Amino acid sequence: MPLEAVDKGDPLALHEQVAAQIRRAIADGEAGPGDRLPLARDLAAVLGVNRNTVLRALHLLRDEGLLEFRRGRGITVTGTSEQSDLLVQVHELVRAARRSGYRKSELIAMIEATEG
Q: Rg of the chain's alpha carbons, rounded to an integer?
């Protein structure tokens, strides 16, 4: 799973950048269901961030259903490339809405209005 150091000048929070890289790796098929992720400290070293930043990103991805934490077995990918790709698009939509000045409630209302 090739990852790059995060851009500390990017306005996107560091943990969000880490999560985005892992999401993209899943979406691109570089990490698939059942694959184990490297240890948080190893990811932190590669990405140039604090271990706690990586852990925060991993918890976010767990909450999204892309990762599973198992004591003694590490962190494994549970999400599919399709699920990850959709989450990437959702995050891009949310960022675009924020840049355009829309609040979360307004974005939700727009989505609900498009349901057929």
A: 15
Residue 76 token pair:
């494994």
Low-confidence ranges of the chain (pLDDT < 70): 116
Identify the pLDDT of residue 115.
76
Alpha helices in the chain (DSSP H): 14-27, 40-47, 51-63, 81-99, 104-114
**Cα distance between residue 34 and residue 21, in whole Å:** 18
Query: What is the Cα–Cα distance from 50 to 111, expressed in whole angstroms?
Result: 36
Packing angle between helix 81-99 and helix 14-27, nearest 10 degrees? 140
Q: How many CA atoms lie within 13 A of 37 on its CB side?
A: 33
End-to-end C-alpha distance for the chain, whole angstroms: 38
Cα torsion for 66, 85, 8, 54, to the nearest 10°?
A: 10
Q: What angle do CA 21, 24, 29 make, to 5 degrees?
A: 130
pLDDT of residue 116: 61
Closest CA to 44 of 87, 77, 14, 68: 14
